[in-house]
């Protein structure tokens, strides 16, 4: 679960408390009680949460487009170079690009496939962001609970979202749909007023987008194996075509034919 510690109400516009009562002072003088009450929800704070989640969700599509631009400008790239950086780590997306028809095999270099972009891959560069929109699947819900003192009041507000693909997202993912998610914001009172304690989602929005590319964890090994096999077959076809052409040219020139490479190894 994504968890981030936030400070006081000064950080609320980023991803924060969706309570309208920020800035109100807790009143320790009030009688001790145990209270449960709906939280007052601030629409502007809800929108701030939505904007932050939307930006996080579309950070992966932005990285994909940057990779495609780099490939277009370079003219070709090895399979090991077709990765995007997610949470500081490189993540290969060559299998997804190949399976979606965005890559064309140009050949093999030192046992590694070398790709260029297909017309569909080039077209994807010009598809505008965002690839995904967030739509509220139901109104935000909130609740406040106190401990022994009203001053210990703690509140949570949960915003519920579904993910809708834009025309660009449909060009990238076809009919694939992404699962919805909730963002829960927690807060508590103190002598200084409301304090945001943490917010979290079951899976960060950018990881939902990444999983749409990589597929379920249980399927990834099989998908990659099938991709390697398909690229190997294509590479063998290209090599055989080149070998046949070279052999024909050699016979015409009276030279002995050269041996061919019959496998692509990863």
What's the layout of helices and strands?
Elements: E1 2-5, E2 36-37, H1 43-57, H2 59-74, E3 77-78, E4 83-86, E5 89-92, H3 94-99, E6 103-109, E7 112-117, H4 119-125, E8 132-145, E9 154-165, H5 167-173, E10 181-190, E11 193-201, H6 205-214, H7 220-253
Antiparallel strand pairs: 1-11, 2-8, 3-7, 4-5, 6-7, 8-9, 9-10, 10-11
Helix pairs in contact: 1-6, 2-4
Short description:
The protein has 7 helices and 11 strands.
Plain-language structure description:
This protein has 266 residues and is an alpha+beta fold. The protein is built from 7 helices and 11 strands. The longest helix has 34 residues, at 220-253. The chain is elongated and about 95 Å long. The two termini are 35 Å apart.
Q: Count every beta strand, where a strand is a DSSP E run of 2 or more residues.
A: 11
Q: Tell me, briefly, the overall form.
A: elongated
Multimeric status of the protein: single chain
Figure out the total of helices: 7
Largest sheet: 6 strands, antiparallel
Strand content: 25-35%
Low-confidence spans: 1-35
Helix content: 25-40%
First-to-last CA distance: 35 Å
Mean residue pLDDT:
78
- Class based on secondary structure composition and strand pairing: alpha+beta
Q: Number of domains in the coordinates?
A: 2
Q: List the secondary-structure elements in sequence, H or E.
A: EEHHEEEHEEHEEHEEHH
Strand order of the largest sheet: 1-11-10-9-8-2
Q: Rg from C-alpha positions?
A: 27 Å
């Amino acid at each position: 679960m994504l968890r981030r510690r936030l400070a006081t109400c000064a950080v609320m516009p980023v991803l924060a408390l969706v309570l309208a009562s920020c800035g109100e002072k807790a009143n320790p003088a009030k009688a001790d009680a145990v209270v449960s009450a709906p939280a007052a929800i601030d629409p502007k704070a809800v929108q701030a949460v939505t904007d932050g989640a939307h930006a996080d969700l579309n950070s992966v599509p932005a990285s994909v487009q940057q990779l495609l631009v780099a490939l277009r400008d370079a003219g070709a790239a090895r399979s090991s170079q077709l990765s995007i950086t997610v949470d500081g780590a490189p993540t290969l997306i060559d299998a997804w690009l190949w399976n979606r028809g965005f890559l064309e095999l140009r050949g093999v270099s030192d046992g590694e496939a070398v790709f260029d972009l297909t017309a569909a891959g080039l077209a994807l560069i010009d598809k505008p962001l965002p690839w995904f929109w967030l739509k509220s699947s139901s109104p935000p819900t909130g609740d406040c609970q106190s401990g022994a003192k009203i001053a210990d009041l703690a509140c949570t507000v949960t915003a519920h979202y579904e993910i809708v693909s834009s025309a660009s997202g449909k060009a990238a993912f076809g009919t694939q749909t992404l699962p919805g998610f909730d963002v829960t914001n927690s807060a508590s009172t103190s002598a200084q007023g409301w304090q945001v304690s943490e917010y979290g989602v079951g899976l960060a929005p950018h990881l939902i987008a990444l999983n749409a590319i990589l597929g379920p964890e249980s399927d990834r090994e099989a998908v990659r194996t099938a991709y390697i096999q398909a690229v190997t077959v294509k590479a063998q076809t290209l090599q055989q075509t080149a070998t046949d052409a070279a052999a024909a040219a050699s016979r015409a020139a009276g030279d002995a034919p050269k041996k061919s490479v019959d496998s692509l190894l990863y």
